[in-house]
Amino acid sequence: MASAPPQITDKTDEQQAITEMVHQFVDEQILPNAEHLDAKDEFPEAIVEQMKELGLFGVTIPEEYGGMGLDLTTYSMIVEELSRGWISISGVINTHFIGSYLLQKFGTEEQKEKYLHRMATGEIRAAFSLSEPELGSDVQAIKSNAKRTADGDYELNGQKMWVTNGLRSGLVFVLVKTDPAASPPYKGMTCFITEKEPGAAENTGPYQGLNVPPSIKKMGYKGVESTELVYDGYRCPAEHILGGEEAGLGQGFVQMMDALEVGRVNVAARGVGIAQRALELGLRYAQERKSFGKPIAQHQAIQFKLADMATKVDAARLLTLRAARLKDAGERSDLEAGMAKLFASEAGKEVVEDSFRIHGGYGYSKEYEIERLYRDAPLLLIGEGTSEIQRMVIGKKLLQRHKL
Ligand SMILES: Cc1cc2nc3c(=O)[nH]c(=O)nc-3n(C[C@H](O)[C@H](O)[C@H](O)COP(=O)(O)OP(=O)(O)OC[C@H]3O[C@@H](n4cnc5c(N)ncnc54)[C@H](O)[C@@H]3O)c2cc1C
After folding, report:
1. Residue 384 among the catalytic residues
2. Which of 137, 27, 129 is nearest to 85 (CA)?
3. Which of these is catalytic: 195, 261, 353, 384?
C-alpha cells in the first residue's frame, strides 16, 4: 500500500515531543494563571522562570551556544502552543527570538560569543526597537540618531516607543540614523546592540543615558510591558554596531527588515494559537449552553460559525507553516510570510469575535476567558506591520515575481 503523501502539518518526532510538552505546560501552568495575571497586569515571573528551565529562550539558538538549534517551523509550532495559552507569554520570547535571529545572521563572532550563551538560558533577554512616538509603519522616518564621538564611540539620542520587554530586557537592538542626510534614508540607518540593566527605570554607570519611562497602559496584552525608551547621550562602543562598524554601519534597515520577515511568521503563529483557543472555547460553550430547548450547537447558525472558525484556523496554520518551511529550506519567503501574517492575524481577530458572539452576554463578562482573548487579539493586527503594510509588501512582491 502506498504511504500517504507528506502533509504541511506533519511533525517530526522531535517536533511532536516538544509541542506536546509545551501544550501540557500551557494547560497546567499558563491557562490557570493567565486570568489573574491579566487582571493585575502582572509580569508572569514564575512562568518565565519555568520557560527558562524548559530551554524555551534558546529554541532557535545553535547548540554550540547552548540553545536547542531548532528551526523556524518548530519555533512557530511552539509559539502557536504558547499563544493558545496567553499571547503575552509569546510576547516575552518574541522580541528575544528576533534579537537572537539578528545576532545569528548578522552578528560578528565576538558578538555571538558575548551574548548568545546567556540568551539561550534566558539569563539576558532581548528587545528590539524601531518605532518612535511619531512613526511606526514609516521606518525610514526614524529620528533617533547616533553620532561618532572623538574617542570612536557612538552617542545615541532619541525617543523610542512601544518597546515590548522594554524594562526587563538586558539588550535592546535599536535602529537609529547614523547618516540623516543619506538618500534613500535607509542607507543611513544602523542597528546598535544597546546594553542596559534589566528592570532599571534609570540606568547608571556604563549604561547611563538610557531611561525607561513607566509602562504604557494597554487594553490587552497585559503582563508583558510595553515601554518608551529614552536615549539621552547614551554611549555605545563601535563594536556594538550589529555586524561590527565596518560591515554593519548603514546596514540596520536591511538587517531589521530581514528579521521582521521571521517576526511575521512568529506573529502569524500567535494568530493561529489565539484562534485555536477561541475555537476550543466556542465548541465547548456551544454544547453546554441551551436555547429554545436544545444546545445552541444544534442551531445551524451556530454550527456555521463554528465551521467558518475551524476553516480559518486550519487555513491560517497552513499558511504559517508554509512560510516557515520555505524559510527553513533557504527559499524566498517574504511574500508567504506577509500572507501568513495578514491572514492569521485577521483570522485570529475574526475567530475570537465569533467565539465571543457564541458566548452571548457571558462573553462580555470577566468570568469567561473569551473576554481576555477579545482584548488581546487586535494587537496581532498591528505588530510587525499592520494589515495595510502586509498588503503593500504582498502586492510589491507579487509584482516583482510576475514582472512582464
Ligand atoms: C502592544 C504593542 C507592542 C509593540 N511592540 C513593538 C516593539 O517591540 N518594537 C517596535 O519597534 N515596535 C513595537 N510596536 C509598534 C508597532 O510596530 C507599530 O504600532 C506599528 O508598526 C504601526 O505603527 P503606528 O502605530 O505608528 O501606526 P502608523 O504607522 O501611524 O499607521 C496608522 C494607520 O495608518 C496605516 N498606514 C500607515 N501608512 C500607510 C500606507 N502607506 N498605506 C496605507 N495605510 C497606511 C496603518 O496601517 C494604520 O492603520 C508595538 C505596538 C504595540 C501596540
Report:
1. yes
2. 27
3. 384
